[in-house]
Amino acid sequence: MVTAHWGRALQDSYQLVNILQFVFEVAPVLFFFAFGMTLEHFLRKPLARRIESHLKLFILAVVHSLYGQQTPLSSDFFMFLFAARLLFDIHSQISAANRVLVAAFVLALCGAWVALPFPIAYDFFMPSFPGWFPVFPWILFVAAGRAYSRHRQDPRTAAVALFGLSLALFDALILGNRLSKWPLSPDYALLFASGTALAFIVLDRIRWPALLPWRTIELLSGNLLLATALHYVAVAVVTSTHHRLAPLLVAWVSERYLAPAFSLEYIVLAFAAVLILIGLVRGAVATAGWLDSRGILGTLDGLFPAIAVVGIVLYAGSLHLDAGLRLAGLPLLCSLALLMVYKRA
């Protein structure tokens, strides 16, 4: 995600950058799929803890909406996670008969999404507030992740995923239907949901070399909400670096080699952004551990609602006065994400 976001500062004419961005922008699909895989664990928690976790995620989503869209409500990343998890929680509490009705309703929505000319059905579900992730159809990736977690040991799971991947490729490459992330097309959803399931199946069965940085992978996977918040800091750093380097590249590199030069810059800064993100997550977790050992973090966690309300009011007010103060919300966003991750509800 961090590599995809910073690349938006570059021109669309750089083909290699566009290809790499297309690959890296699969990050939300992977995240939502993995989020679905963890739902069973969340739904087994006591009701009081689930309600507390829903409220905290909603607060985090409001701050993120202010940061990303300058409005407290949007269909952006964290707000989508809040809505999706809340809907699955409600779904788990209703009767079996009502679950059948919900399944029929979702199937009807999917049928309209596939059958109607694209993107009529998608536009119908776009909310009146801004954002990139309307609940439908993006919630299908969460549903796919939950289904995979339930049937990952079933040998038929691989066959179903492979069939879905083949069908999406046939429709896109042979029939010529477009793959679109925004607005989300059925082919894109089927291709990457099936591909993600196959990737997890492969990962479940491969013994990786001991040289792979498993501690780093475990660090990021165990702190995904925190990493998502902190990645904006890494993006801001490398984007600022790019704005300083770009005039130098234009002045020193001939026009013939300018596109390769900027493509190389994208790769180097993308790698740097990942390293910065890893360093930020490590530093944040270490700081939280130090604060926790002195009892400070527990106090802050108890004050979470008060801190959030005061922070949201001040941040929203500052954005109303000056939209250029957008970056001032990053410390609040990252602090709330750290409390959510380190002091899980």
UniProtKB/TrEMBL annotation:
The keyword Transmembrane helix applies. The chain crosses the membrane at residues 19-39, 73-88, 100-118, 124-145, 157-176, 188-203, 224-246, 266-285, 297-317, 323-342. It comes from Azospirillum thiophilum. It comes from the Bacteria. Keywords: Membrane, Transmembrane, Transmembrane helix. This is Uncharacterized protein.
